[in-house]
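@channel sequence for tomorrow's demo:
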Amino acid sequence: MSSYLYSLLPPSGNNIRLLRLLPNKDEAAPLHCELRNYSLQRLSPRTHLYEALSYVWGNPNETLSIYVNKNRFQVTVNLHVALSRLRDHSFERIIWVDTICIDQSNKEERKQQVQLKAKIYSNAHRVIVWLGEKAVEIKGALEDIQLAANEELTELSKKEIKQQAILNLLQNPWFQRIWVLQEVAAARHVVIMCGSTAIDGYAFCLGRAGLRSKYTANLPERFSLEIRSLAEFVDMFHTRQATNTRDKVYALLDMSSDDPEKAGLQPDYKISWEELFQQLVKFILGKDISVKTYSQRAVIKCKGCILGQVSSVRRDDRQNANIEFRNTARDLGGTMKWTLQASANPIQEHDIICLLYGASKPTIIRPYKDHFAVVVIAATPLNGSSSLEWPKTSQLTTQFLRDFLLVWDWENPQGKLQDQEEYETLTKIYSQALEYSKAEFGGYLSEAIRLWNDIMILDDLEEHDKADERLLEARSDYVAAFGKNHLPRLISQCGRTLLSFAAGEGHEDVIKLLLKTVDPDIKDGRFSRTPLWWAAGNGHEAVVNLLLATSQVEVDSKDYWGRTPLWRAAESGHVAIVNLLLATSQVDVNSKDNDGRTPLWWAAGNGHEAVVNLLLATSQVKVDLKDNYGKTPLSWAAWNGYEAIIELLDKYIN
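structure tokens (generated this afternoon):
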């Protein structure tokens, strides 16, 4: 007999094939079946009278023969055993089995039939879960679960139950398959079979709940029937197994509340897994990211802002985390409790909550030496917190946006790179994504940006001691790499971003290079100081001109203590810079710091006569403004004995 040749299905989108498993009283007789076309088009409210099989394919290289329409057909050993168990002595059975009912060599048919799988399983009058031809103790575990479901267990008999046998049962490969979520979630009726033993699916779930104890408390809960976003499903189940890696995504589409067509994620077995993985990441995080994929790892280069950090977490069947908000999210409240679905990679204390540029939901990440591991790609709190309006990064000022190098690893969910080769591969991908040349300054620039970016993130998390340690390292490396002289200063007297540090030192060549890719108005996370603030305060006129020429800086931006660049320049007596800032017409000459002191107050008190003249010449200065302690610019100049300034102010007042 020749191998079976498929005929094409009718063009209607609801057509499938069903397998007629023919009866035989001889259990050792070869399995004979017939394939027939069938339409799922509903003609009546009744269910379709076929069963659907949910099983693990098994080793594709170990096969046995059955006969389909009298033609030889090779199936895996596990499927052969399942069909042998299902074959009746007297009556034929009508079954849908994916391996046989779909022409696996026809990619277009596979694509079309995969889109129907949820419908096939939901319309079947029964779904049969085949766990395999297991040992006696596993069958005994099913029987114990059946007793528990029927409430026939006494306290004594509960103690006698073999907990390990139940654990072994639940570690069956079927429970790790990604497709089981779709195959079982919408089923009308489920029967679970292990060898000759069968148990009702609802009784199985009920019995497991009855047996829950300290031994089984950490086992997966019954699958939720709630519809969720694709990102949520992926977070929960991406470590599940699939014979074809692409099915890790395709199996979730029909359960997702997202429209897969709009997402461009319809089943398509002509594209590679790496291409599909890229599409998935961009669908979840938006188009503004750069992503490279290899194997089951995505390396993502993106921008985002820090929202907060996990201060503690408690896990049962869900994850209950306490979140401490920082910086841009502080208006959401200091702390909040989140209840999240169990994720493939469990949340840990100190994990970071961030909102990536272009994403609609926060991402939870975990820091490692040179990258961040993605823990939860789209965090969705189940307790009211989901209704919060997250700061929209697309509408936020870019001042608090940070660069992130993320690794989303589906093979190693912890995300920590295991060896030097992995690290070199990762950094190579990262370097290829950079938009500037590393040739200048001996290739240090990319490393410098990464190191200083880490300092900003630590400041955003209010881990300032750690940030100071990195700042000392970064400052030394900067001086050595760029060959620049650096005045010895306290850490508090240095910029805490790479651009701010260079601006504060007056290094024009470094500034010009950085301005090609770095936000010219970037703020640090500790004192909210910009590069312009540092350049103005340290008297670097050329750098101030470079920054103003970008037309992308907030000239009157205040730091943590309310001090503006004009305040800094006036306080230090930098006449040319005060003149430059006033010429922008974008400054408030009467802006007060947190002590109520204006630029004029400081210029007068420090004896900077030329600066006082410039400020008075604007005709906008309020000379008699008092600080929080009742002192005016005139009284402060008098206190310090600056006669010329006293005369100027007195003349202006009168």
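heads up for whoever presents: The CA atoms of residues 68 and 89 lie 18 Å apart.
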